[in-house]
Write a structure and sequence with these properties.
This protein has helices spanning 11-42, 46-51, 64-70, 73-105, 112-121, 129-138, 146-149, 156-169, 172-180, 185-193, 198-214, 217-222, 231-247, 254-300. The protein is an all-alpha fold and 304 residues long. It is flat. It starts with 10 loop residues before the first helix and ends with a helix. It holds the Pfam family BPD_transp_1.
Length: 304
């Protein structure tokens, strides 16, 4: 005969549960409202957006902002450049980070603590912008793709997180058994460690990939050839040109003033379209990596 014990919630439990639901609902609204507003503003009538009549759902739907934005051939060239820089840069990042972190996680690696401490120093001390620029110039990497992907080839923070994942997830006994069976260190890393490290690889790829996708400062400093500009630089140019044209209102006729006013209104909508265009690919990719992201971050941050 089975007995079932029912645990009734106390009044305090119910009050706390209501508080949790209210808090989550408010948090959801705070997160969703800006997203919905940006999407709605990017396809709404510019005048209604700037006057405040459009505050949530789109009004006077128009795609003029997107036509202006996507009709620019530089946008597509910037997209291709950014995809290339992101794929190449992320591949280099993983190629350096994973072996480095695994080596530092091995207890039989002599001097691993000294190497780790030396690397941690670089998180707090830097040569600065001018020495970095002089170094890139002396290496002949100015106006090349290598100036965007080599200086940031590895993040010490990501190395520490990945090292912690290897230490807490990969059984040392498995490594010792493979070595006894005649497995080399390289084969052990490639055929045993990496297949078991999918979560942390996905997390690192997401971290590095988003960083490369959003990066514009390195291109601003090291690139002079406009055909090599990434997407973020192209979008920055568009916003600056729109602001300059909208601010040119002195000594103009009434007809020109009306035209400039229309451009100014359109420029405000284009800004919202820029947000959507630049962030959409990352938003699309993230759901596919989410299941690995949570597991990798939780395991990789258990102990340092």
């Amino acid at each position: 005969m089975k007995t079932t014990s029912l645990i009734k919630d106390t009044r305090a439990d119910k009050i706390f549960l209501i508080f949790v639901y209210v808090f989550l609902a408010i948090s959801l609204l705070i997160v969703l409202y800006p997203l919905i507003y940006i999407i709605s503003a990017s396809i709404s009538n510019p005048h209604l957006v700037n006057s405040g009549e459009m505050w949530l759902l789109p009004k006077g739907i128009t795609f003029e902002g997107y036509r202006t934005l996507l009709g620019n051939s530089s946008i597509w060239r910037g997209y291709l450049n950014t995809i290339y820089y992101t794929v190449l840069g992320t591949s280099i990042n993983l190629l350096v980070t994973l072996p480095c972190a695994y080596a530092l996680s091995r207890e039989d690696f002599y001097g691993r603590r000294a190497f780790t401490n030396f690397m941690l120093v670089t998180m707090f001390l830097s040569g600065g912008l001018i020495p970095s620029y002089l170094l890139i110039r002396s290496l002949g990497m100015l106006n090349t793709v290598w100036a965007l992907v080599i200086p940031g080839a590895v993040s010490v923070y990501n190395v520490v997180v990945t090292r912690t994942f290897f230490q807490s997830t990969i059984p040392r006994e498995m490594e010792e058994a493979a070595i006894v069976d005649g497995c080399s260190d390289f084969r052990l890393f490639m055929q045993i460690v990496l297949p078991l490290s999918t979560p942390i690889i996905a997390v690192m790829a997401l971290f590095y990939g988003v960083g490369h996708w959003n990066s514009f400062f390195s291109a601003l400093i090291y690139l002079s050839d406009r055909s090599m500009y990434p997407l973020q630089m192209i979008l920055r140019e568009i916003l600056i040109l729109q602001d300059m044209s909208s601010n040119t209102v002195n000594n103009v006729t009434s007809e020109m003033a009306n035209m400039l006013y229309s451009k100014q209104q359109l420029a405000q909508v284009i800004k919202y379209g820029v947000m959507i265009v630049s962030s959409l690919p990352v938003i699309i990719v993230y759901p596919f990596l989410q299941k690995y992201f949570v597991k990798g971050m939780m395991v990789g941050s258990i102990k340092g």
